[in-house]
Design a protein that fits this description.
mainly alpha; single chain; 129 residues; 6 helices
Length: 129
């Protein structure tokens, strides 16, 4: 360690060397957002329906609503972001070296983008039936 690093408190040294960086805050915020969006999803899809279930035609008509479509896409993005940040944290906790972190980040980013793109495509396809 350099002289400047040893002069800092231990907590500051730990944060500086933490591979999670500011992404832990993003994950915490996405967890909070996940609770809010899940609440909206449950109300919009289940609690406003008599008996709690819709027929196929009712689902297609409902999902075609721009507000419901938007809630579903936001839910998809938040769930994917939260899940992949959690998976990244688990993988990094296994003690990967710095050289292995970059490929993990890229792989999870690509997986997340593909999952979101597929989910959006699927939502558009269902909404346009």
């Amino acid at each position: 360690m350099t002289k400047a690093m040893t002069d800092r408190p231990a907590a500051a040294r730990t944060r500086a060397g933490n591979p999670a960086g500011p992404l832990w805050l993003v994950q915490a915020l996405s967890g909070f957002l996940l609770i809010l969006v899940l609440f909206l999803h449950m109300i919009a899809h289940h609690f406003v329906v008599e008996g709690g279930l819709r027929t196929f035609d009712e689902v297609i008509a409902y999902v075609s609503n721009p507000v419901i479509f938007t809630i579903t896409i936001i839910f998809l993005v938040v769930v994917t972001l939260h899940a992949l940040l959690g998976l990244r944290a688990i993988i990094l906790d296994l003690g990967l070296g710095r050289s292995a972190q970059r490929p993990v980040n890229w792989l999870l980013t690509v997986v997340g983008l593909v999952a979101i793109a597929y989910g959006i495509w699927l939502e558009i396809t269902v909404a346009s039936m």
